[in-house]
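Friendly challenge for the regulars: who can give me the structure tokens for this chain first? No prize, just bragging rights.
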Amino acid sequence: MACEGCCRVDQNETTYMPEKSNQSKDDQVLLAAPPMQPKMVTSQPATIISPPAKVDMGITASTAEFVGAWEDPAKSVCIISDSTLRWPNNVISKISVTGGKLQLQDVDTTATLDGAKNTLTWSDGDIWKRTIVPAEFAGTWLDDAKGAHFIVGTTLKWRNGTISDVTFSGGQLRLEENQLTASLDSTKTKLAWSDGDTWTRTDNSANSSEFVGTWKDAEEKLHTITDTTLNWSNTRCSIIKVGNGQLTVDDCGGISATLEGPLKLVWSDGDVWMRSSA
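First reply, four minutes later:
Bragging rights claimed.
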């Protein structure tokens, strides 16, 4: 709320005081006082008190340090965005960051980062390690009928277009909706499902290395682009394609983006993202 200054004009009355004369009364020459000029009162300029600087309620530098995927001792992956923590069972907890500590809202539990920003130590003793949302599962997979399925971040897009949320625990991909799990073989090219199905990796993604990185939008939210996905700040993921210097997001009506130099990403809807070092 803007503060408003006040001003006070001090008006000092000017009085003419004739000089005392040392002459005798007879010799004294009375000098008439100069005519009084109308007093001009000039208002002093008001002292303006600037309003306090606008407080940015978006993502702060300290919050940005916590954003990403974290693996707990059980190899389960939790995802921290700018305002939430998504647990392996898809439960969402609200978070805040104060004084360099992450706080779970409504729970007396905090977490702090190490100097390298790669280890998260919780006040209850748990230690999480920074990880990439298991990149080895990401990509295009063919089932036995040659139907293509896409795993991007924490999303599985089935060949019929249906979307399922996936989690990662104990080194396995999990579908909570039907309790299925999937494991990779040693070559990372076969995905064996607990119901007996086996998918085979196929590589049909375009090279998107120029776009890879963390990007900050106009609302200070962070989004991450990998070789095959766009991981939004709200933990959703989208498949991307890159061609002719343009990135296209398939599940957002074909919205596209181009680079203006290495630091600016300009979207076809007018949004502009800036590359972030977070």
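Residues 213-276 form a domain with the Lipocalin fold (CATH 2.40.128). The chain has a mean pLDDT of 75. Your move, everyone else.
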